[in-house]
């Protein structure tokens, strides 16, 4: 019977250090792979030319409440849609734009001007950005899951995100063409 040599304290420390270095190296390799393969952020979309043909533009007044029970912010609302799926929503608290949200077949973008924040992505926009879902609700007269869309007898409407109570309430009329 052969006996294995007894490991000294120094050998045990060396073995433990070697395992630690190997594990740390693997962790760094995985982290680097994730960073290098991640999606790069999308560039800011250029403004859309609403004077080009095919845009259905509606303007009016609206009150935005960021959450249930919050005080409302009144402003002017512009909603523009095109049959190819593009849309623009602009909420202006005179004299400055407050929110500008754009949606195309490839992606979406929302700018919150007072906070100097821009969010963008590909595909379907997240539910937390109510503004990007408004044109679809107005077009269909109904809302997607997680939202509620209602109209009233005076021609107004209310669009609300059920999870937070964030809402936009107002009325829109077609923009008169010169």
Can you offer a commentary on this structure?
The chain is an alpha+beta fold. The protein folds into two domains: 9-38; 56-174, outer membrane lipoprotein receptor (LolB), chain A (Clam), CATH 2.50.20. It has two helices and nine strands. A nine-stranded antiparallel beta sheet has the order 6-5-4-3-2-1-9-8-7, covered by helices on one side. The chain is elongated and about 95 Å long. Residues 27-41 have low confidence and may be disordered.
Topology:
Elements: H1 9-37, E1 56-65, E2 73-81, E3 87-93, E4 96-103, E5 107-112, E6 117-122, H2 130-140, E7 147-151, E8 157-161, E9 167-174
Antiparallel strand pairs: 1-2, 1-9, 2-3, 3-4, 4-5, 5-6, 7-8, 8-9
Features:
single chain; 178 residues; alpha+beta; outer membrane lipoprotein receptor (LolB), chain A; 2 helices; 9 strands; 22% helix
Summarize the structure.
This protein has 178 residues and is an alpha+beta fold. It has 2 helices and 9 strands.
Low-confidence stretches: 27-41
CATH architecture of the largest domain: Clam
Task: Give me the CATH superfamily of the largest domain.
Answer: Lipoprotein localisation LolA/LolB/LppX
Q: State the major sheet.
A: 9 strands, antiparallel
Classified by CATH, the class of the largest domain is Mainly Beta
Q: Give the distance, in angstroms, between the N- and C-terminal Cα atoms.
A: 102 Å
Mean pLDDT across all residues, rounded? 81
The helix content is: 10-25%
CATH topology of the largest domain: outer membrane lipoprotein receptor (LolB), chain A
Global shape: elongated
- Oligomeric state of the chains present here: single chain
With helices defined by DSSP (H or I, 4 residues minimum), what is the helix count? 2
| Strand segment count | 9
* Major sheet strand order: 6-5-4-3-2-1-9-8-7
> What would you call the structural class?
alpha+beta
Q: What is the CA-atom radius of gyration, in angstroms? A: 27 Å
Order of helices and strands: HEEEEEEHEEE
